[in-house]
Design brief:
Number of helices: 19
Distance between the termini: 52 Å
Number of domains: 3
GO molecular function: ATP binding
Protein name: ATP-binding protein
Keywords: ATP-binding, Nucleotide-binding
Structural class: alpha/beta
CATH topology of the largest domain: Rossmann fold
Strand order of the largest sheet: 2-1-11-10-9-3-8-7-4-6-5
Helix content: 40-55%
Mean pLDDT: 80
Radius of gyration: 28 Å
Shape: globular
Largest sheet: 11 strands, mixed
Low-confidence stretches: 300-326
């Protein structure tokens, strides 16, 4: 038994069907230049399959929130929630099989990528009992899985690309079927695009994109010219869930639309130049906004405003809030100790930790965080290793020995270096994993191998399984410990 839906008609007027069960196993890639009808196609697919399967939509522009009005999707406005809340909601989505639209419209591109990564990772990491089938639709996928570095941070690109790769490469066993749409194949990471077995290719003009589309559709290069001639709303379809040979599809009508509707030609108002002159250059007083009547209740205040008000209050603020570096340092050390103590097994992002650091500093009377993000990253790594006082000359050799390492490896290395300096047993894998921000034993092993290749450590494991690690830059070694 198959569950098929119609996405449109072919050149003979016959319905072109998509087998949803097969689509769950084989994934879908949609490509087309801006204005080719990708969003219309995705909306048709979502509307037709809504009664058959759970749907999760990653929506960077807020185009699909109107599905909630007719099909009952839950809209999550990512701008209203923090990372922990997004992860918790994603976990509940898998448990309760709710169809949702994650709207990223209110976020900047870096934040969109990080939010989508956290959300997708939580879907991916759900307990096995919650691995129900779901279509995961990602519009503008080139934003979340870019083929090359752009104007976004390396951290945002790395976590977002990893999450998209997991979705397309390993999501099937967890019930997650990726449906990704992109404006240009050349902008989309190849290892993400290559995992799709079904394709809907819309109008595109650049030779490199036409060549890749033709390769995916199994067409000869000279046949690729027809991709340039496709009309808006027409796509070439191929794949085990659709058809075994390329077929042209005219996408059918939809029942919902974007919040703003479709932009159509609109003539300017008929008026004289003098009227426009008066409207555009009217005195400022004529354009003054009328004063609104006072509210019975004050509007809600943002948490940041309340925290700032507390820091500015006479009771909370010391007589001299702007302290110099020497006076700031005890506050920094105290706050770092508190954060490390409260961290436990959690592994929040460094941006989340820095935000927490700023809040705690303000609560202790500092109006602005005394460290910028790079300095905080270094001090937090030292704090995780128990090196709270950055001015302590005992830690200078360890910091010099860490110079060849990337920033994210500083904390586990310093943990090893401190153990070597104090003659303590080698930190176990669990301690190194917490310092590295992971729960994977495999990543810890690869971390140790990488640091060995750089020459900053030398690991030794005897036949009884006891491990010690030497630090050549210090001329010291940890005591042996169980590996």
């Amino acid at each position: 038994m198959t569950a098929s839906i119609s996405i449109g008609t072919d050149s003979h007027g016959k319905d072109v069907l998509v087998d949803v069960e097969e689509l769950l196993a084989t994934r879908l890639l949609v490509q087309g230049n801006s204005g080719s009808g990708k969003s219309h196609l995705l909306r048709r697919l979502l509307e037709e399959s809504a009664p058959l399967v759970q749907q999760v939509v990653i929506d960077p522009e807020g185009d699909f929130v109107t599905l909630a009005d007719r099909y009952g999707h839950v809209v999550i406005d990512a701008g209203d929630y923090n990372e922990r809340e997004i992860v918790k909601m994603a976990t509940r989505i898998r448990e309760h099989r709710a169809s949702v639209v994650l709207s990223l419209e209110a976020l900047e591109i870096d934040a969109q990528m990080k939010c989508a990564a956290s959300f997708l990772n939580a879907l991916f990491d759900a307990p096995r009992d919650h691995w129900y089938p779901a279509l995961v639709v990602v519009d503008e996928a080139q934003m979340f899985a870019p083929a090359a570095a752009g104007d976004v941070s390396d951290e945002a690109r790395r976590v977002s690309l990893a999450a998209m790769t997991n979705l397309m490469c390993r999501g099937r066993k967890r019930g997650l079927a990726g449906v990704i749409a992109t404006q240009r194949l050349a902008k989309l990471a190849k290892n993400v695009a290559a995992e799709a077995s079904n394709f809907l290719m819309g109008r595109t003009f650049l030779d490199i994109d036409m060549a890749r589309a033709a390769d995916l559709l199994g067409m000869e290069r000279r046949q690729a010219e027809q991709i340039r001639d496709l009309e808006r709303g027409r796509f070439l379809a191929l794949g085990p869930a659709i058809c075994r040979r390329p077929v042209a599809v005219k996408i059918g009508a939809v029942k919902t639309s974007t919040r703003g509707g479709t932009h159509k030609l609109m003539a300017p108002p008929v008026t004289s130049g003098e009227d426009f002159q008066e409207l555009l250059f009217a005195p400022e007083a004529a354009d003054a906004v009328p004063v609104a009547p006072p509210r019975a209740d004050p509007p809600p205040r943002a948490a940041e405003d309340i925290i700032r008000a507390l820091a500015d209050s006479p009771q909370a603020r010391p007589a001299a809030p702007e302290l110099d570096f020497g006076q700031n340092e005890p506050v920094v050390m105290t706050v770092l100790e508190e954060i490390v103590a409260d961290l436990g097994d959690a592994a929040p992002s460094i941006a989340t930790l820095y935000q927490d650091f700023g809040v705690r500093c303000r609560m202790k009377g500092l109006r602005t965080p005394p460290l910028d993000l790079p300095a905080f990253r270094k001090r937090f790594a030292m704090a995780q290793a128990g090196m709270m006082d950055a001015a302590d000359v005992r830690w200078e050799p360890a910091m010099r020995a860490a110079d060849p390492l990337p920033e994210d490896m500083l904390a586990p290395f310093l943990l090893i270096a401190r153990a070597a300096m104090q003659g303590q047993p080698c930190p176990d894998d669990a301690a190194l994993a917490r310092a590295y921000g992971t729960s994977s034993p495999g990543r810890v092993r690869r971390l140790i191998d990488y640091m060995e290749k750089l020459g900053v450590i030398v690991a030794r494991t005897d036949f009884s399984g006891k491990r010690s690690i030497g630090v050549p830059g210090l001329g010291l070694s940890t005591a042996v410990a169980e590996g």
